[in-house]
Design brief:
With 729 residues, the protein is mainly beta. The protein contains no helices and 58 strands. The strands form 14 sheets. It has a five-stranded antiparallel β-sheet with strand order 1-7-6-5-4, with no helix packed on it. It has a five-stranded antiparallel β-sheet with strand order 2-3-30-29-28, with no helix packed on it. It starts with a strand and ends in a 5-residue tail after the last strand.
Length: 729
Amino acid sequence: MNVKKPCILLLVLVLPWLLPACGQVPFTEILIDKLAHGDDKAIADLDNDGTKDIILGGSTLSWYRNEKGTFVKYKVADPKVEFTTDMHTGDVDNDGDIDLIVADGKDENNVMWYENPLPEKSPADGGVWINHIIGTHGNWMHNAAVGDLNMDRNLDVISSGHGFTRLWLNRGKNNWQEINLSEFGGGAVDTYDMDGDGDWDILTTKGWVECPQDAIVQDWRFHPITGLGETVEAGDLDNNGKADILSADSAHVQGKLFWLYNSAGIHDPAWVKKEIDPVCGSHKLQIADFNRDGHADILFGLELKALGILYQDLERPGEFTKQIIAKTGGHNAIADDIDNDGDLDVVSCDYLNHPPLRLYINNSAGQKSAKTIPLTIHRWHYNPITIHAMRTFGLAFGEVTNDGRKDIISGSFVYENPGTNVNTSWKQYLIRKDLHAVIATDINGDNKDEIIAVEGNGSVFWCEGSKGEWKVNPVGKLPEASHPIGSQGHITGQILPGGKPEIVMTAGNGTYAFRIPDDPYDQWPMIHVTASTSDEDIDVADFNNDGWNDIAGTFGETHEVLWFQNPKGFEADWHKHKVGQVITKNYLDRVVAGDVNGDKKPDIIISEETQSGPASTIIFLQPDKPGEGEWIWRTLVNQYTTNSMDMADMDGDGDLDIITGEHRGEKRLTIWQNDGIGTFKSFIIDRGKENHDGAKIVDLDNDGDLDIAGIGYDSYSVIHVWWNDAIVK
């Protein structure tokens, strides 16, 4: 059933635009469906078109397709009893689309998931959602949570309520293994990394349950916490890197809201309980930054009475100012960026038999802010520039269409920058079929960029032209990489001082470099730099301060991090220096080099990829004597497989910040903001969008701040752009 439900009512809430003194922002109310009602709310991109949709479950399960601000209703399924009282979304079957996790009634087999008909057929084009049973909760499911608890690349589900808490481990192929955790609490539930070890733990109304290394064989260790109420939510409220807990005394009526923060260490916590609000009972809480000031705020909803936000005070962290968005209630209200403008919008509808369904559009993205030094890292909006990309390891940027703007080059295509950062698709031009463009640089001296591209067999080409007209010229042939679409290391670097940069690439049997001849139609000189790298990432920096750029890389077989000394000429077989050896079963993947601690010597940061378990991102600090001595290393973060990383001064304060992007798991895109001496504070820009050889930094709109572009391997058809709104022209 496809029932068109256009937005027929636009109401600007009668609220003053309260500017930064108290942090409040204006919302615009949109009536989505005047007859809709139900307990379950979610926001997700169900049709993979780059815009998020609204999902509502109750007497029926439906989704509202976001068609440029007009919402069209599509039915998913009818319940046997009622879809209640919570739902989640995620890619349950790892096929690149979003599925729905719900509960129906209180009888047997009431915990279930609905399989998205993509990729075979769009749910907006007659695709049928398939129901799969997860298990029996034991009563009504009151709350749910999801996360890859055992880090096996499968999304697990936790059902909780009415005295039961059950973990359903996703074993793949629709096999679920139940672990009964009811002795640790049976009310509200959340997932969060409570002990900072890189994996999810489970928060209940009695404390938190620590995920063991082997979630099936080993016992789950319980950490009791006194003073928790009926609703719990975990997050980092004060941005100090330690888990905090929000707890409401009541889920259904007015009650006190508390913040429990850890006043001691992560591994020996001492929880301090602080009252935030005396009448803020809420069935669901959400910790997020609603006014884009870099401080976490709190979304709450009191049934039939109030929907609001508690804004954290910039001058007094830990103190909050309340804004009531609506007095119609906000049972299970949820927030996400529905209009892709970089701020969080709110979907609200009270429980069964209490319509309507409303959307509250956050207008803080339109609020002008003065340029600051350092630049803010908290203001972004998202734009999928195409949904027709190809699977590739190449993502590059260059001015190739003669308009003065950097275009995106990826796979066999050029994507023309339209000169606007509003939501729009970029024109796609074919270079040549089966090419993988990896670098853009001025090769022939015409003051615009040409393209370096490879084929899976190791052939290398340079491509001249513009838009849809390209001439493909041979450069040379490298040994085939381990993957059929090529290697994952390709950069430009000034190996020889002065002149055009050299082209440095990994391949089978190590790392190679090409020199661009004066006449690019002549034979390109090539050297074999080393056989001691994998065909993964590399970077260029002067590690021994001799005025000649060296090369950093990794060797997967030995898990070594290495740098190779420039022989002060375009010669083969560079001398190898060992930086360190990572004791891990994971593969070493991304590499970036630069001075992160302010000692004027380039350091090396590497990330790991893994098929299961946590992956580390590790910083290696160069010793006091350049190029000699033992490198000191420390872990930046343990998270899901991190196949994307880049580094630049994102906030304009003169030091290098790090960008990481996860390939699987939560798929977080994170800025690690440097304090100038190599200590980093994280800010998550976005979740749920894959980056594989993506998360690359570039100023696409020429406004002076740095944007981020990304590609995926699993969900490869979308090219992502996150526009940085630190400077708004």
